[in-house]
Design goal:
The protein has 17 helices and 35 strands. Strand 8 (about 190-195) and strand 9 form a beta hairpin. Helices cover about 25% and strands about 30% of the residues. Strands 19, 20, 21, 28, 29, 30, 31, 32 and 33 form a 9-stranded mixed β-sheet that branches. It is an alpha/beta fold and about 675 residues long. The chain has 4 domains: about 5-125, Rossmann fold; about 130-265, Dihydrodipicolinate Reductase, domain 2 (2-Layer Sandwich), CATH 3.30.360; about 305-350 and about 445-520 and about 620-680, 3-Layer(bba) Sandwich (FAD/NAD(P)-binding domain), CATH 3.50.50.60; about 385-440 and about 520-620, D-Amino Acid Oxidase, Chain A, domain 2 (2-Layer Sandwich), CATH 3.30.9.
Amino acid sequence: MPDYRPKVLLIGAGRFGLQHLAEWRRLAAGGEVEVAGVVVNSEKSRDAIGAGNDIPVHRQLDDALIRGVDAVDIVTPSETHAALVQRCLPLAHVLVEKPLAMDPAEAAELRKLALKSGRVLMVGHLFRFHPVVRALKRLVDSIAEFPRGIDGIMTNPGDGSAELKDPNLEFLHLFDIVDFLFGVEPVMNIGRRNGFVNQVSVRYPGPMNVNLKMGWGGEAKVRVLKLVYSDRQITANLVDNSIVEASRNNQVHKTFFSADPGALREELRTFLAAIRDQSAAHPDAAVGERIVRIAVAARPRPEKERPRVAVIGGGIFGATCALELERIAQVSLFERHEELLTEVSFNNQFRHHSGFHYPRSYDTIAEIKATRRDFEAEYEDAIIRDVPAYFCTSATAIEIPAERYLAACMNSNLAFTLGGPPEGVLDLSKVSLCLKTDEAVYDVPRLRQIVTDRLRRNKDIRFHPKTNVVSGVIGGDGSKRLTVVGPEGSREESFDYLVNATYMNRNLVAQWFGFPVEPLRFDLYELLVLRLPIPQVCVTIIDGPFTSLVGTGREGEFLLSHIHNSVSRSVIPADGMPPDWGELPTNRSTMLRHSARYLPILGKATVVESRWATRTVNAFARDFDARPTVITSHGFGCWSVLGGKIITCVSNAREIAQEILGEKRRAVSRIPPRARTSLSSS
């Protein structure tokens, strides 16, 4: 029927309705359709549309008007959709804006009505026609596997009426895009409300875990979808109209699309094609019902007044998380050793950073400066400030010569003076610059005692030493069901939230719960504990290669590390789990020999012992100097912390607490640190 021009009646002339009208006019000008009229609900709208054109504008919708057309296009408030479809569908084909209905039962009835009427009921899931989404569909169809995970954000700036709206229905485009891309239904939905934003975790077969944020917040409109595969990451930006595909070998391919608003035109043309031939592909009533069902199932559930939180790992990050979270939750802290802070928190350089360590990573310096005050407010008694700390640049430095290092320190407003360590410690002929800095060191045994005392005094935190969490599953209600083995034997416990602060076992929870496994590189790292006949001092050689001598605050005791010779093995396991290193090799003599080139005092050193740690970093990080603390939100009420520096632990714990807290209790989080009895100093 090449000459068949369907007559279409537009119902609704709000902001979206006027966009529909403009596109219908374009199609009418091309001879594809006849615009039979517009139905409005106010004289003002009628006058605005009717002025200067010959399209009839009606203030009332009656059956005769509907019978006189082939199809209607419903662009009215969401809560009116179901009733209007029920009225129009027996008389004409219907295109209705999303959502099809406000609840699944209504949507199911409309699907049945469409089958009974024999007419087209198409739902305006606009993003199925967006050029970026269509290109993304072609791209994902060319990849043999489903993504391991998807993160999506669809938010608008704050809306004064946002409190009255349902983000899951207002922004159900995210559910629809995933449905369009992969054509599978979820097996689990969990939603949480945070202010005017819903945070939704959806599990699809595979498993494919999808974490979505939708609602009102921020200053700009955001429409982003990130797909993570085993060998690449794809980011689609529906505001900038771009797709960025980044592979593991650091190759990046960017595609940009026209900003021409052709998606709506394609949607309307698809509707016309379905009218002419109902077998033509279109988002029909079955699609509309399915998306409503998924969106409603993922609505936030009522929050408990004090939910149960499991924290796995009793290092400084896990212990601090437990202390922070106690304000809003019932907390259980699980540590497999008898004492806290026994692994990486202890096998560390004890350095209280200011930023001098990271001249090529301004982000890391900024993180240190942003988190320093929080840490010092809680743990000042564990900081030793009378150990002078010096940073020097090698006279033969290539990547970080004196000028570049000095510029980095000055640009970051770091506090320093010119000056070197006591005579005999450093060979001044081997360095081109020496700065005396404001950095300090930690008294880790004192830090352990402070944390232990606070946990013992806090009756709302259940501390389980010598207890190993061996497995877990996510229940249908979203609970995290853990199997723990301790001195009393094996048992199961159920929690609303879970924080994995085990550092090198960051992927343990991912394996249990079917989350994407993060590719990690594990380095076997050796620190030497030395005795030296000198006062306490810290000296670091930048680009020497990087060598660091750190006083521990105890008379005559020092730690020595070397950027190359401290690392004896590095692996990237396929399962993302730390290896069993077997017998631990020592590289003491080589480490001492290379370090003594700059630090001749090492000729008088006595080696007390070697301490080995497993350093864990992102396997494919592009910034090799950066050491950020990475908090991964897996969705489903689970987080993993990959700590980069001890100094960030308090701020990181508060970040997770705020995620759990949500906007409704935000005032609690503003209590000054020293006013919180659970964190007061002993």
